[in-house]
Amino acid sequence: MSDSASERLYLSPPSITEAEIDSVVTAMRSGWIAPLGPELDAFERDLAAASGRQHAVALSSGTAALHLSLLALGVGQGSEVVVPTLTFGATAFAVTYVGARPIFLDVEEDSMNLDPAVLESLLERRAATNKLPAAVITVDVFGRTCDYDRILPICARYDIPVICDSAEALGALHGPAAAGSTGVCAIFSFNGNKIITSSGGGAIVTDDADMANNARFRATQSREPFPWYEHEEIGYNYRMSNILASIGRAQLARLPEIVERRRVIRDLYNGGLSDIDGVVLMGDPPWGRWNGWLTTMRFDSTLWPGASTRVRELLERHNIESRPIWKPMHQQPVFAQAESKLTGVADSIFAEGLCLPSGTGMSDKDVDRVVALIKSDLNR
Ligand SMILES: *Cc1c(COP(=O)(O)O)cnc(C)c1O
User: Fold this and answer.
1) Residue 4 C-alpha to ligand 1 middle, in angstroms?
2) Which residues of 275-286 are buried (b: 16+ CB within 10 A; e: fewer)?
3) What is the rounded CA–CA span in Å between residue 28 and residue 38?
4) How far apart are CA 140 and CA 124, in angstroms?
5) What is the pLDDT of residues 208-266, one digit of tens each?
6) Which residues line ligand 1 (CB under 6 A)?
7) CB 122 within 8 A of CB 68
8) How remote is the CA of residue 61 from the centroid of ligand 1, in Å?
9) pLDDT of the residue at 36
10) For residue 233, what pLDDT is reported?
11) Residue 188 C-alpha to ligand 1 middle, in angstroms?
């Protein structure tokens, strides 16, 4: 065995206990080694409850959930969809799967999420020429909800449906409401490094029964109710399996404890670093409670030029994984032709920001070690 100092400290590894192991074993012994089964049904009930929704549809990934949400809303060839530029590529990729084009909008400082003022001015201009986008996808990035109290009324004024990409935000709160409870639907991801995992998976949550049924139908190859396989539409194989649902269900039961620990980890980082001028550890947005998914920090580039890159490389030399903030979509080669409305905020967050190791299983000592390395780089 290597000593703990030489073991790699990952950004956000899954936290697996006996509860998850027991849950998989029980599911396997039950004989439901199938795409459907009682664990899947129970996971969907638990997810709907956790997000304050009537329905949940568990799927093979968060990306599949975005794809089926867009299809259910009838977004297709030639349409446009608003996407915040600061997100993971999957949000924008899903838009292209249905033949639509993303329009990338800049974000605001408090939450790093879609800037309502930029959204409002885009929609005002587009309404004047009758070229409104078919949908808006908001992203609750790093586990903070968006400023929905401003965004939702703006979209409602123009009758544009909102899909909430809450892939990173399960367990966060918007005021008293659960992340995922806003918009026509919201999606979650249970990929390996998200706040909880099913080893891979996703879900749509919604209050609209037709939308949930539509997503379930397409996710199981659009099979019509005939004895033979009858298809009137293109289908997909996007359902989550019963076995994976059993992992997700055990993880979801531990979500409060995971959120609590990850928030403590951020507070420990903050305690070690907050007295340094020009260094900010992101916390709760003004309107809600962050789920702690990834601790993100910013180094003011006038006081600390180049610090985010230098610190990341220093941590890497000590076998500690950190990562830049999501590279904005308008800077991605694959979206070079896309339209965007920018204020410069996403660019500066990308240049100054860093995601720190935030795993539920990190010890207080691990945090201290990262803090000490960051301070050593800043000569503090
Ligand atoms: C992870 C993620 C997704 C995609 O989820 P997968 O389960 O990996 O397909 C989509 N959007 C955001 C913002 C994400 O972070």
Assistant:
1) 31
2) ebeebbbbebbe
3) 12
4) 24
5) 999 999 999 999 999 999 999 999 999 999 999 999 999 999 999 999 999 999 999 99
6) 61-63, 87-88, 90-91, 139, 165, 167-168, 189, 191, 202
7) no
8) 8
9) 87
10) 95
11) 8
Tokens 């945090």 locate to 367
DSSP element (H, E) containing 124: helix 116-128
- Say how far apart CA 243 and CA 198 lie, in whole Å: 9
Beta bridge partners of 13: none
Question: Which pair of structure tokens corresponds to residue 202?
Answer: 């996703």
pLDDT score at 243: 96
Q: Which residues, 6 or more positions from 188, have their beta carbon under 8 angstroms from its beta carbon?
A: 47, 51, 62, 65, 166, 167, 169, 170, 180, 194, 202, 203, 205
- In whole angstroms, what is the distance from residue 170 CA to residue 98 CA? 26
User: How, if at all, do strands 185-189 and 135-139 pair?
Assistant: unpaired
> Which amino acid is residue 285, in one-letter code?
P
pLDDT of residue 2: 39
Query: Residue 90 is encoded by which pair of tokens?
Result: 């999957």
d(CA 113, CA 108): 6
d(CA 238, CA 253): 24
Distance CA 297, CA 281 (A): 4
First to last CA, the chain: 34
- Is-above-0.90 flag for pTM? yes
- Whole-number Å distance, alpha carbon 187 to ligand 1 midpoint, is 9
Asked if residues 246 and 348 have their Cβ atoms less than 8 Å apart, the reply is no
Token pair for 357: 């190791």
Distance (Å, whole) CA 247 – CA 194? 14
Q: What angle do CA 331, 182, 335 make, to 5 degrees?
A: 15
DSSP 3-state assignment of 300?
Answer: coil
State which residues of the chain have pLDDT below 50.
1-3
pLDDT digits (tens, 9 = 90+) for 338-378: 999 999 999 999 999 999 999 999 999 999 999 999 999 99
C-beta separation of 320 from 345 below 8 A: no
- HSE-up (13 A, CA, CB side) for residue 308: 23
Residue whose CA is at the smallest distance from ligand 1 atom 6? 62
Residue 35 corresponds to which amino acid?
P
Residue 1: per-residue pLDDT: 37
If you average pLDDT over every residue of the chain, what do you get?
Answer: 96
